[in-house]
Amino acid sequence: MPKIDRKLISKKEEVANELKKIIKSENILYSEDETRAFETDGLTAYKQKPLIVVFPENTKEVSKILSYCNKNRIKVVPRGSGTGLSGGALPTEDCILLCLGKFNKIIDIDYKNRCVVAQPGVTNLSITHSVEEKGFYYAPDPSSQIACSIGGNVAENSGGVHSLKYGTTTNNLLGVQVVFMDGTISRLGGKTYDSEGYDLLGLITGSEGLLCVITEVTVKILKKPQTVKAALIGFSTIEDAGNCVSDIISNGIIPSGMEMMDKALIHATDNFVKAGYPRDAEAMLIIEVDGNEIEVKELMERINKIAKQNKLTSIKISKSEKQRLKFWAGRKAAFPACGDMAPDYYCMDGTIPRGKLAEVLKEIKRLSKKYNLSVANAFHAGDGNLHPLIMYDANEKDSLEKTEKFGSEILKYCVKVGGVLTGEHGVGVEKRELMCEMFNNNDIQQQIKIKKALDLNSLLNPGKVYPILRKCAEEGRVHVHKGNTKFPDIPRF
Amino acid sequence: MSIKETQNFPTSQDSDSLEHPQNEQEVENLIKKFYKSNIPIELIGSGSKRKIGKTLQCTKTLSLSKLNGIIEYLPEELYIKVKAGTSIKAIEQELKKNNQQLVFEPIDFGYFLNGKSDYGTAAGQVACNISGSRRFKVGSIRDHVLGFRGVNGRGEIIKSGGVVVKNVTGYDLSKLICGSYGTLVALTEITFKVLPLPEESKTLVINNQKIEKAVHFLDKSISSSNDISGAVFFPDKPIISGSSMNIENTFKLNDLKQEGSITAIRIEGSKSSIDHRIENLINELKIINLNISILEVHQSEVFWNKVKALEFFSNSKNNIIRIVIPPSECVNLIYQFSSKFKYYLDWGGALMWLEVFELSEEMFESIRRKVVKRGGYVTMIKNSNYLPYVEDVFTISSERFNISQNIKKSFDPKSILNPGKMYTGI
After folding, report:
1. What pLDDT is attached to residue B14?
2. Which of A151, A337, B90, B99 has its CA 20 to 30 A from that of B47?
């Protein structure tokens, strides 16, 4: 992580007192016992207590806090619900952790403009709950939707199982209110489609809290489809399942969701929720289609035919809404179900071109043997987003390190076959040193320049996304000996 | 009007000022050279949308038209990677062979800017980010660019994104590039997301409705679960002398009634589901007793192609203004304009096109004020001889201007790429 400001840590009380001039004192936590609760996010392998935790209640307070921190060169780490899986909300020892938990209100439900305006701490699912009485919903549905905040969704550009048809957060977002590190409050987008000038809304979506703090979000809502049906289709090989996915798309069908699970995960999840999965299958697809009744029926028939051509071993089509939800319950419980398989698991998140699936899974199998760690695979097959879950036991010596090495080999392979490092979990601290697998010096420098354009002193969410000690630099022009460069104080990025 | 702007007349450039790099390497070398010697350059593709934005008078013009060709097209992976100067027409022809399309419906600005059809290049469409009638359903161009390569104002080749849809690795610069009018990078390569062509398209037309009722129908249709993909309104009034927008002459279709205004709703999908959805819409909108008709497949396609090509403005010598607003503001805004300007509505009322006869700068500013007050924005798409230059062609707030200026500097510190194309100082 970036160099720790020891001097600042010694002035903790003084900083807290300054902050008390901006926000209510009960909204500031700084004793070790209080800050411990915030030492990690969804990536629990990394832990670090922040210096001070603050809970501003409105945008003006956020602006004043950031402006104060900017002037005094204090690092700030923003945090929503803390469900992120890449360590994007991991504090530094000398940071102020800015929690948006008090921004928990829905401000406006606007059916005329088909949108909802919410504060960033509102959970993803409560947006759908707020409009479902009129038959509307918010499309992106990350697995953690019951807990994750909409502000965090914007910061990470969260996806979900329906992003194949309905897109990710960035495609469902109309506007935000943000505060930049110098305290400037700005509105990007609004209730219109697109906005003129540079697409700053698009830029900040998925920027992992490095460019600004989000204080208000406007999202698009959609009318629920008339009919939704899901099918569970079993295959005796991963290749057959993979070919089936490609053939469905090649036939011009875009299902609303198309998920794949391997045998290990079929068993784990079926044990966990008794979803009725085909336990003898090597691979299973959950395919969901929506639309009007006739359309859904037609699509299901076509999918059935294509699956048959690809040697399906079983097919079950949902007969009721209850059964459809049951089909999904297993997939949505994929992560906790892995808890039954090993004391700990590590979830990876690469995206690959769909056609490379069998090749990548073969390589994962090979690596699994090499590292002697078992893996279960969940795959958003429709959009190529792969989630290998590596089982390990954190109590075993060096096991986390071994797991991380395994994981990074998987991700490097994803890049090698034309994919990317992360599809929806973000780079965070977890994958930052892998960035040079995908980007060269020019690419990364350009991104860092954008960061500097909006946060001159690099104080917002430091140590995330961009490599601290760039591996490409290690291997290339800059010689690094035992982790030390020749001039360690010169910021490389 | 500032003195600076009045100097920005299009000039005929000598052949030395026009560069035609053959590949990315040459683009890199040229921009590096211009960067070192502080030479501002205008970037163009085929030039079909060159008139949008402020007219530039740069020492050099760099045409990307020689960077032409499809690099990789994998229909089953739903992407196509092309060189930046590849024509949209060539891309669409290739996609059609596999029953696929650019679903954002690239607009053909050729008719009304240059008198004949010209969709321009991939880079041109991306640079302008102006999308067709499906916008409310499928997103705009920015939602369909998966990745790009290009050269920034320092002459460095940079890339962002990839070929996959789900990708959160690093900042999403593809979004930033869309609609940046060539002021951040000279694009060299673009990867588009592609989607299947619908099996069929039909259009439900309701004639002779007043704007309130028409917008109500469009709004209700978009807010229904009938999954519609187009929602336009062409009023028959006002009739304004000097205005050339002519709906009747544009849409000469056998089954399209020319009785009063036209409210048109497009439904796409499989044959049987389309009929079912049209039936649903007629019931839900309670329009069975109104003057309704259906455009079948062929005529429906022709109708929407004409909308996409903005053909009703073909021969217009007037100023053409594009307004995007929250849909709920549409009717009130039209009430403030309707007696003075010819207009039509797209995106169910969220997009408005105005043709203005004898527009003055004061009138334009007054339009802008009214739109901005309602949370929208205004773009002068076509200038006329009557008002050839306007100070602010685009709309921006002061704090966004400052942020945008910083972003511009991070890509192009010496402001050599299309300087001032969008805003003076950017």
Report:
1. 53
2. B99
Pick the CATH number of A227-335 from 3.40.1580.10, 3.30.70.2190, 3.30.750.24, 3.40.605.10: 3.30.70.2190
Q: What is the pTM of this model?
A: 0.94
Residue with tokens 């398989």: A341
Q: What is the DSSP string of B332-375?
A: HHHHHHTTT-EEEEEGGGTEEEEEETT--HHHHHHHHHHHHHTT
Q: Decide if pLDDT at B57 tops 90.
A: no
Q: Cβ of B113 under 8 Å from any chain A Cβ?
A: no
Phi, psi of B53 (to 5 degrees): 85, -175
What residues have CB less than 8 Å from A230, skipping those under 6 apart? Answer: A257, A286, A287, A288, A317, A318, A324, A327, A328
* Dist CA B41 CA B17 (whole Å): 9
CA B361, CA B370: separation in Å to the nearest integer? 14
A200 contacts in chain B (CB < 8 Å): 176, 400, 403-404, 407
- In 10 A of CB A60, how many CB atoms? 14
pLDDT 10s digits, A312-345: 999 999 999 999 999 999 888 888 888 788 899 9
Instruction: State yes or no: pLDDT of B55 exceeds 90.
Output: no
| Minimum-distance CB partner of B163 among A135, A353, A446 | A353
Given this chain, do its domains A227-335 and A342-416 carry the same CATH topology? yes
Q: How far is B388 from chain A (nearest CA, A)?
A: 21
Count of CB contacts below 8 A, A vs B?
257
Please, what CATH class does the domain formed by A106-223 belong to?
A: alpha beta
Give the SS3 label for residue B426.
Answer: coil
What phi and psi values does residue B381 have, to the nearest 5 degrees? -85, -40
As annotated, the residues of chain B forming the CATH 3.30.70.2190 domain(s) are 199-393
pLDDT value of position B239: 81
Architecture of domain B199-393: 2-Layer Sandwich (3.30)
Closest-CA residue of chain A to B53: A197
Tokens of B356: 């203005």
Indicate the CATH number for domain A342-416: 3.30.70.2740
What pLDDT is attached to residue B5?
A: 32
Give per-residue pLDDT as tens, B19-37: 999 999 999 999 999 999 9
Select from A193, A300, A357, A438 the residue whose CB has the most chain B CBs within 10 Å, as the one to mutate to test that interface. Answer: A193
Using a CB–CB cutoff of 8 Å, tell me whether B159 touches chain A: yes
- Residues from chain A that touch B77, judged by Cβ atoms under 8 A, are 353-355, 384
CATH 3.30.465.10 for domain B1-197+396-426, yes or no, is: yes
B219 touching A (Cβ < 8 Å): yes
Q: Residue B15 has what pLDDT?
A: 57
Listed by start position, the domains of chain A span 6-99, 106-223, 227-335, 342-416, 435-493
Q: Chain B contacts of A193, Cβ < 8 Å? A: 135-136, 140, 324, 347, 350-351
State the smallest CA–CA distance between residue A225 and chain B in angstroms: 5
Contact B270 A422 (CB under 8 A): no
Closest-approach residue (CA) in chain A for B378? A196
- Helix H segments across A160-273? 163-166, 200-204, 238-250, 263-273
First to last CA, chain A: 13
Cβ–Cβ gap A170/B175 under 8 Å:
yes
Pick the residue of B81, B126, B171, B401 with the most A CBs within 10 A to test the interface with A by mutation: B171
Angle CA A421–A257–A134, to nearest 5: 120
CATH class of A6-99: alpha beta
